[in-house]
Design the sequence.
């Protein structure tokens, strides 16, 4: 199956009132597992490569080309997306490599600077047919995003979307990155008000910390794209630990990466079912 544009996957889900699972790739096994889980669920999926993962690999090209190859071989629609890029040069590289969408994160900058930087990225990406997600508010570490002062304001969100022309907006509504417990408290009323305020899809970052029922409720309130990373990494690592505990003399990484890959695939299938009730 040819690579599917992110905007097509998100647009169809939004029209159907369902969610899109967007899962982070750390290495080849993650990409394979995510696609296997999507095929098992018979659902489209987004493979995401973060700027942190690019730093881990030392370059974008190897992990991007591997993810694109896995996506093109899939039996279900798969898009490949650059996640949380703060460097515009990395965005331009992703566009040149053939990624169909990027998330440019200038949310740490003052509002006016965020708008200016995002506008430049949007202009470049749109000239190459690439879909752009941006962020407004703070989806930070555990604790920070639970402070009312860092929630995304609907009026500011409307102004930001109008000023930048972004295709999707990541908003701060109570989730946080890198949570290993699933007890984040989302503001569903705020999600609904944001959905009414902007005419682009909303994106929930930090979804690893959100329970299944709250993910379903977030979709009902107005979220479309749901990003998950830590939850899958937890499943991956637990499977590796379990295998090594049972086989302490093993030296072949394939013996423990195989069950780890299977564990991630199971979680992806489960989450895609949660997002498409």
Sequence:
């Amino acid at each position: 199956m040819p690579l599917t544009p992110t905007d097509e996957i998100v647009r169809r889900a939004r029209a159907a009132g369902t969610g899109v699972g967007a899962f982070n790739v750390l290495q080849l096994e993650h990409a394979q597992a995510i696609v296997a889980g999507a095929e098992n669920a018979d659902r489209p999926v987004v493979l995401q490569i973060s700027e942190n993962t690019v730093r881990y690999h030392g370059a974008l090209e190897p992990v991007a080309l591997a993810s694109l190859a896995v996506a093109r071989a899939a039996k279900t629609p798969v898009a490949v997306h650059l996640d949380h890029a703060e460097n515009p040069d990395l965005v331009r590289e992703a566009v040149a490599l053939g990624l169909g969408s990027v998330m440019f994160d200038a949310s740490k900058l003052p509002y006016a600077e965020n708008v200016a930087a995002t506008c430049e990225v949007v202009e470049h990406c749109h000239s190459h047919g690439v879909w752009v997600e941006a962020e407004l508010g703070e989806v930070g570490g555990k604790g920070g995003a639970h402070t009312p002062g860092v929630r995304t304001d609907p009026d500011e969100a409307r102004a930001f979307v109008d000023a930048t022309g972004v295709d999707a907006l990541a908003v701060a509504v109570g989730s946080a990155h890198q949570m290993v417990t699933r007890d984040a408290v989302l503001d569903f009323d705020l999600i609904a008000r944001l959905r009414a305020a902007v005419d682009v899809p909303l994106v929930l970052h930090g979804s690893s910390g959100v329970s299944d029922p709250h993910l379903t409720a977030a979709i009902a309130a107005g979220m479309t794209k749901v990003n998950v990373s830590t939850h899958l990494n937890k499943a991956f690592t637990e499977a590796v630990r379990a295998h090594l505990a049972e086989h302490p003399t093993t030296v072949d990484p394939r013996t423990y990466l195989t069950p780890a890959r299977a564990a991630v695939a199971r979680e992806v299938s489960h989450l895609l079912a949660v997002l498409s009730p």
Observations:
- Residues 139-149 have pLDDT under 50 and may be disordered.
